[in-house]
């Protein structure tokens, strides 16, 4: 225990000592000023004494000189000479001081001869030397100087009288004249002597007042400063006591003041009371030792019991102080819960470090290893003892073999963490790729104190990454490069060709009718076909050529090191021939063809993207014009491609700008000629191009993913039009809407149909959804589920273009399928073409047996009408009855006539 001897009285005296010193200084200052005042008064007394003697000597010298002039007595002349000597002595001293070059001893003797008090002489000299311009002194000196000439005249008069009396030559008239002259001089000197005396007296009075108020002011100011200082010191003493009390009560530790003799608590702070759950008054008088569950109450570690019964680990430090005559122990009890928890966490961290899977190295500021965990030893084969005091970067280099650069350590020292790949050496000399993360533990000044490195073997990870990189740059199905990798290699080939003045060609290969394969067989069959196509394309290429797959059935080929674009023609023709040969896929033997577009550098573009786009444009022309053909790129093709791109861009805005509209083609009941339904057909009224055909913009909408929004707009618009016709009290119609494969297969399709019917208020049975065979095929296994949902909703489905695709009769058994539409390709040849007749009659018979409603499309002649009517077809559509019409024309056709008939005028009259 530390023993501290302290005295509160001594501490207080130390705090008050400056106040006492200041008081002594104030008293000393006042005494000094008083002494200065007294000295000044002595000087003024000397001034008054000197003035009195000077005035007396002046008057007496005039009296003596006048008596000498009247009687000629030598005694009178001696008296004049004596008094005149006093006047001249004072005058000499005055003039000597004014000159600034004088002897203090001579001046003092001169004033002493003039009868001035010796104690006042230094003050008079000081005033004449430095303060001759002081009020009243300036005027007195001026009066004094003004009689210098008159006094000299008195001296001359005395000399003349002495000479005259000595020679006996004075006449009575001369004596009278000299006495009159003396009187005249006296009349001039006397008032100035009185003024001199008055100024001296006033100056003494003025200086006395100044000294009084100066001493009084200085004394008051010094007293005020002392009082302020006293107030500050006392406030500081009070503040110290308050701060001590505040620190005592707000301390983070519990503090107990304990009587050393009895061991009982004299006082405790708030922290102690809050820890123990009682008031400070309740703690006073208790024994400190009784509060501790274990440990010493004086020093060391122990435990206090909290109010809830739990234990609080604490550490106690005590010091002995003296309160008057009593020895008091000050016990400071600190809560070490955090330290205990930290030590526990440190123990857990140490165990975790030992058991962590990654290797961990801890090194000092010089990068010398201090410790490493077991995982590092297992990873490298180096025991901790072998690594200790060696730099951990000695066994590690960059992947290219270079040592870790100094810039890396500079960045880490600047505050960055470093993570990167290094090549690490094992104890047996082998190396392996390692991922290393280096961070720092810093001291208070922010300098690295320790380095922490976490390392792991990334051999397997690098292999996986290389595989992933291959997957990222190669198509997983065919093994050909992806679009981005193809563009990169194409750019490199263009760069080489630019340096070597060569050429590069890009072939864009697209399979013809590949969608039919997918729709007619399966996606697995389509994938197998794509793999075989990729193999045949690779087989036609040299080792330095590149083949890529950039879309579903779209391939690209890069031919480098050419002299001209036309050299690619041989490869392209060979490739067309190879792809035209049958593909043996096990269960199937398929025939496909391809369309190829060719673009070359530098003729058709200077970058990879442009070459691919231009080759695509050339392929599009080959596919459109001929198929199983190839075309070289020309600028006109690009213009067509730009037109399609522009149309695609404008198509995105068409819905927003309300550029779409619907027309409706009636469906006629074959027997009666009544309009029983209409089919909603979309049209695009382009603001610049006019009407754009659906065959032109629908494929673009499907490729852009806009077809679902367009189908939903058609559905809602058609339902609203049907509601308007109902409100106009027109005969009830069935509304047929075409739905694309993309919309029908979308998860939100059924919800959109249900929402449109509910919001608009159309009965589901009046809505007919028309689907093509290909749309049903694309939906695959979900077809039956979607059909069942439509059936439950009450919406019927019509299979459109039946017989032109896969033509699976299983479709006709699906729920919700209630209508079968006979394609116009079979109707066109009726009734003359035997094949069309047979197919049509067969389809009508199948529909009748399955209780399906048949609708024939494309009826344009009366012969076709009559044949279909006899065959049993229920409804028909075609130009024979009506072209697609706007809503108001449909309303006109449906409006009741006087005859009561609601049939179209174009329907042939009923035959007998």
Keywords:
53% helix, 912 residues, 8-stranded mixed beta barrel, single chain, alpha+beta, 30 helices, elongated, disordered N terminus, 20% strand, 7-stranded mixed beta sheet
Notes on the structure:
The chain is elongated. It is of the alpha+beta class and 912 residues long. 53% of the residues lie in helices and 20% in strands. The model is unreliable at 1-9 and 898-912 (pLDDT under 50). The protein contains 30 helices and 29 strands. α19 (608-625) links the parallel β19 (593-601) and β20 (630-632). The strands form five sheets. It has an eight-stranded mixed barrel, surrounded by five helices.
Task: Provide the fold topology.
Elements: E1 2-3, H1 8-71, H2 74-99, H3 104-113, H4 121-130, H5 137-146, H6 148-167, H7 172-250, E2 254-259, E3 265-268, H8 270-276, H9 280-283, E4 292-294, E5 300-305, E6 311-323, E7 326-335, H10 337-355, E8 359-364, E9 369-372, H11 374-380, H12 384-387, E10 396-397, H13 406-413, E11 418-425, E12 431-442, E13 448-457, H14 459-473, H15 483-500, E14 503-512, H16 514-520, H17 523-539, E15 546-549, E16 554-562, H18 568-580, E17 583-584, E18 589-590, E19 593-601, H19 608-625, E20 630-632, H20 635-654, E21 660-669, E22 675-686, E23 690-692, H21 694-704, H22 707-727, E24 734-738, H23 741-744, H24 749-760, E25 767-772, H25 773-779, H26 783-793, E26 796-802, E27 817-822, H27 824-827, H28 834-849, E28 853-856, H29 862-871, E29 875-876, H30 887-894
Parallel strand pairs: 1-6, 19-20, 22-24, 24-25, 25-26, 26-27, 27-28, 28-29
Antiparallel strand pairs: 2-3, 2-7, 4-5, 5-6, 6-7, 8-9, 8-13, 10-11, 11-12, 12-13, 14-16, 14-19, 15-16, 17-18, 21-22, 21-29, 22-23
């Amino acid at each position: 225990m530390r023993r501290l001897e302290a005295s509160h009285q001594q501490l207080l005296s130390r705090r008050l000592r400056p106040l006492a010193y200041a008081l002594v200084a104030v008293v000393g200052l006042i005494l000094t000023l008083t002494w200065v005042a007294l000295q000044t008064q002595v000087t003024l007394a000397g001034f008054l004494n000197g003035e009195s003697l000077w005035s007396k000597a002046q008057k007496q010298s005039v009296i003596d000189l006048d008596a000498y002039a009247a009687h000629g007595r030598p005694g009178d002349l001696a008296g004049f000479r004596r008094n005149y000597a006093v006047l001249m002595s004072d005058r000499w001293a005055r003039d000597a001081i004014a000159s600034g070059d004088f002897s203090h001893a001579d001046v003092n003797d001169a004033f002493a001869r003039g009868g001035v008090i010796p104690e006042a002489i230094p003050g008079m000299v000081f005033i004449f030397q430095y303060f001759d311009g002081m009020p009243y002194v300036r005027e007195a000196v001026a009066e004094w100087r003004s009689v210098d000439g008159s006094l000299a005249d008195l001296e001359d008069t005395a000399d003349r009288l002495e000479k005259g009396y000595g020679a006996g030559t004075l006449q009575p008239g001369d004596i009278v004249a000299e006495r009159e002259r003396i009187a005249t001089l006296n009349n001039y000197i006397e008032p100035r002597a009185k003024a001199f005396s008055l100024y001296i007296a006033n100056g003494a009075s003025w200086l006395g007042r100044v000294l009084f108020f100066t001493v009084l002011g200085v004394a008051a100011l010094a007293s005020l400063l002392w009082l302020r200082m006293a107030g500050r010191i006392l406030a500081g003493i009070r503040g110290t006591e308050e701060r001590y009390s505040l620190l005592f009560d707000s301390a983070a530790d519990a503090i107990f003041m304990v009587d050393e003799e009895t061991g009982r608590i004299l006082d405790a702070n708030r922290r102690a009371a809050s820890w123990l759950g009682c008031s400070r008054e309740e703690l006073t008088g208790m024994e400190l030792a009784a509060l501790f569950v274990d440990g010493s109450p004086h020093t060391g570690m122990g435990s206090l019991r909290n109010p809830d019964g739990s234990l609080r680990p604490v550490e106690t430090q005590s010091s002995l102080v003296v309160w008057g005559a009593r020895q008091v122990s000050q016990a400071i009890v600190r809560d070490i819960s955090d330290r205990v928890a930290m030590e526990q966490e440190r123990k857990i961290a140490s165990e975790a470090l030992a058991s962590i899977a990654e290797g961990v190295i801890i090194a000092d500021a010089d990068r010398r290893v201090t410790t490493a965990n077991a995982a590092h030893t297992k990873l490298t084969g180096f025991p901790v003892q072998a690594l200790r005091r060696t730099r951990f970067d000695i066994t590690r280099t960059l992947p290219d073999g270079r040592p870790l650069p100094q810039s890396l350590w500079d960045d880490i020292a600047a505050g960055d963490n470093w993570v990167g790949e290094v090549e690490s050496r094992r104890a047996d000399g082998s190396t392996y790729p390692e991922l290393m993360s280096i961070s720092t533990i810093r001291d208070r000044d922010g300098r690295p104190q320790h380095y922490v490195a976490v390392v792991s073997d990334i051999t397997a990870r690098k292999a996986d990454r290389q595989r992933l990189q291959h997957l990222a740059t190669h198509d997983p199905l065919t093994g050909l490069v992806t679009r981005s990798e193809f563009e990169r290699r194409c750019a490199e080939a263009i760069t080489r060709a630019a340096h070597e003045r060569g050429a590069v060609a890009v072939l864009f290969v697209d399979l013809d009718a590949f969608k039919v394969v997918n729709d007619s067989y399966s996606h697995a069959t389509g994938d197998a076909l794509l793999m075989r196509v990729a193999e045949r394309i690779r087989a036609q290429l040299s080792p330095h050529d590149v083949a890529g797959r950039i879309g579903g059935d779209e391939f690209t080929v890069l031919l480098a090191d050419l002299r001209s674009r036309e050299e690619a023609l041989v490869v392209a023709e060979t490739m067309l021939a190879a792809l035209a040969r049958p593909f043996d896929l096990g269960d199937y033997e398929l025939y496909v063809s391809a369309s190829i577009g060719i673009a070359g550098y530098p003729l058709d573009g200077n970058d990879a993207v442009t070459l691919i786009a231009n080759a695509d444009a050339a392929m599009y022309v080959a596919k459109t014009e001929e198929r199983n053909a190839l075309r070289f790129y020309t600028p006109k093709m690009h213009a067509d491609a730009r037109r399609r791109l522009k149309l695609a861009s404008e198509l995105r805005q068409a819905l927003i700008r309300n550029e779409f509209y619907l027309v409706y083609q009636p469906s006629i009941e074959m027997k009666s000629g009544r309009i029983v339904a209409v089919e909603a057909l979309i049209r695009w009224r382009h603001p610049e191009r006019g009407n754009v055909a659906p065959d032109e913009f629908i494929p673009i909408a499907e490729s852009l993913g806009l077809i679902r929004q367009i189908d939903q707009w058609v559905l809602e618009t058609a339902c609203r039009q049907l509601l308007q016709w109902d409100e106009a009290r027109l005969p009830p119609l069935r509304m047929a809407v075409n739905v694309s494969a993309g919309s029908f297969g979308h998860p939100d399709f059924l919800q959109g149909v249900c929402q449109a019917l509910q919001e608009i208020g159309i009965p589901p049975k009046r809505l007919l959804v028309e689907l093509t065979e290909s749309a049903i095929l694309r939906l695959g296994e979900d077809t039956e589920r979607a059909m069942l949902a439509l059936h439950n909703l009450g919406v019927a489905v019509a299979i459109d273009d039946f017989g032109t695709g896969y033509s699976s009769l299983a479709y006709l058994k699906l729920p919700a399928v209630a209508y079968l539409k006979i394609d116009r390709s079979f109707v066109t040849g009726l009734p003359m073409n035997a094949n069309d007749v047979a197919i049509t009659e067969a389809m009508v018979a199948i529909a009748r047996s399955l209780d399906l409603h048949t609708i024939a499309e494309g009826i344009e002649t009366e012969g076709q009408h009559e044949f279909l009517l006899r065959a049993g077809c229920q409804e028909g559509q075609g130009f024979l009855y009506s072209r697609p019409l706007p809503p108001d024309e449909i309303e006109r056709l449906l409006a009741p006539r006087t005859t009561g008939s609601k049939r179209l005028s174009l329907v042939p009259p009923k035959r007998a």
